Amino acid sequence: MKYDKIQDKHLKKISSTDLFKVFLRTHFFQGSWNFERMQALGFCFSMIPIIKKLYPRNDEKRKNVIRRHLEFFNTHPYIASPILGIVTAMEEKKVLSEKDFQESSINSMKIGLMGPLAGIGDPVFWGTVRPVFSSLGAGIAINGSLLGPILFFFLFNIVRISIKYFGVIYGYRKGTNLIEDINKGGMLRKITEGATIVGLFVMGALVNKWTHINIPLVVSKIKNQKDGSIVVTTVQDILDQLMPGIVPLSLTFFCIWLLRKKVNSLFLIIFLFFIGILGSWTGFLS
Predict the structure, then answer these.
(1) Contact of 159 with 79, CB cutoff 8 Å
(2) Is residue 46 within 8 Å of 142, Cβ to Cβ?
(3) Angle at alpha carbon of residue 132, lines to 208 and 166, rounded to 5°
(4) Could you read off the pLDDT tens digit of each residue along the chain, which spans 286 residues?
(5) E strands, 40-177, in order
(6) By the 8 A CB rule, do 125 and 197 touch?
(7) What value does the CA radius of gyration of the chain take, rounded to a whole number of Å?
């Protein structure tokens, strides 16, 4: 389906102001999240300016559209914007050519894009953008500078807000052709794999940089014949000679193994706190 007619100024009903209103409402997308329909109310709330523009009278047609957008919906909240843009274009197309438009195709499109876009959003935002910017901010904040959290806040939100805004605009302009662009050349798979690799690379670097474990148990004490000083060798010294950072790396792999065994992440955090406190109290860790 092509949207060339919609781009005609004489046929176009949706303005850039309407799209901007949709963008503003996307910031409340998770405000009414629930276990029954998840983001359905947030999606419908974001579409209200468009619905009012296309259906100015509060009649049965408007009510039917609202009911349709209250059906189950769930995807990554920051990547939902292109879907909102496409749905806006489709709703406009439906009003302009009601006889030739199948209403069911709107919900079919929403359902079809929920999963693939969620697959992009999770590795891009939670696996790449957030770890990269948080590590950058933490590296500055560790020296006592307030610039660290401020930098993280602004960098993360610049990316988030930009994707949400341009997602709505781009989705509306491309219409359902956006689906073809995403699938063309395996772009969806490439974006997901690329973001996952970058995220894992960053997290791997952070393991050695931010995870510090010291085992101060003394293995031997040798008197230096030259100056008479005592050379103390600890378990940590031996491990560092074998492979620097082997203990944090082993702990990371152990946590990954537990998570794959469906161990609750909250329990895992409490367990690590307990081990750290117990190890410090007994002198096994320092």
Answers:
(1) no
(2) no
(3) 165
(4) 444 444 444 456 788 888 899 999 989 888 888 888 888 899 999 999 988 888 888 888 888 888 888 888 888 888 888 889 888 888 888 887 766 667 777 777 787 777 777 777 877 888 778 888 888 888 888 888 888 889 999 999 999 999 999 988 888 887 756 655 555 555 556 655 665 666 666 666 666 666 778 887 777 777 777 776 777 778 877 877 777 778 888 888 888 888 888 888 888 888 888 888 888 888 877 7
(5) none
(6) no
(7) 27
| Rounded Cα gap, residues 174 and 171, in angstroms | 5
Of the candidates 97, 86, 116, the residue with the CA atom closest to the CA atom of residue 176: 86
Q: What is the C-alpha separation between 146 and 129, in angstroms, rounded?
A: 20
Q: Kindly report the three-state secondary structure assignment for every residue of 165-194.
A: HHHHHHHHHHCCHHHHHHHHHHHHHHHHHH
Structure-token pair, residue 139: 């590296």
Amino acid residing at 25 = R
Least Cα distance to 64 among 49, 77, 51 occurs for 51
Q: Would you state the structure tokens that stand for residue 124, as one six-digit string?
A: 């891009």
Contact 30, 39 (CB under 8 A): yes
In 10 A of CB 166, how many CB atoms?
14
Helices (H) and strands (E) in the chain, counts: 12, 2
Model pTM? 0.63
